[in-house]
Amino acid sequence: MLARLSSYLPTAILACLIFYFGFQALTGDRGLLSLSERNAHLAARRTELAGLQEQQRVLDARIRLLRDGQISRDLVEERARYLLGFSDPRDYVIRTQP
Q1: Cα-only R_g, the chain
Q2: Is the terminal CB of the chain with fewer CB neighbours within 10 Å at N or C?
Q3: Mean pLDDT over the full length of the chain
Q4: Where are the alpha helices (DSSP H) in the chain?
Q5: Res 74 pLDDT > 70
Q6: Are 75 and 65 in contact (CB under 8 A)?
């Protein structure tokens, strides 16, 4: 009986491998059924990237104002007040919860 089954063994192993790789192609991490999930994740990352690029542009503009030769007095005064915790008597201070 074992001799008769041994002739089908390569075919059975090949069928199992085809089933395994076919199943992974459909349901795996990079399978066809997870395509919409990957696209949603990609869209979220692109949105995050756009926000970070905007933040970088704002910071680059502030850095240009603080470079030697063209220092903005208003920006330096604002940063000094923020870091030291002072305010001008003419300023309106609105306290918020951190």
Answers
A1: 32
A2: C
A3: 85
A4: 2-6, 9-27, 35-66, 73-84
A5: yes
A6: yes
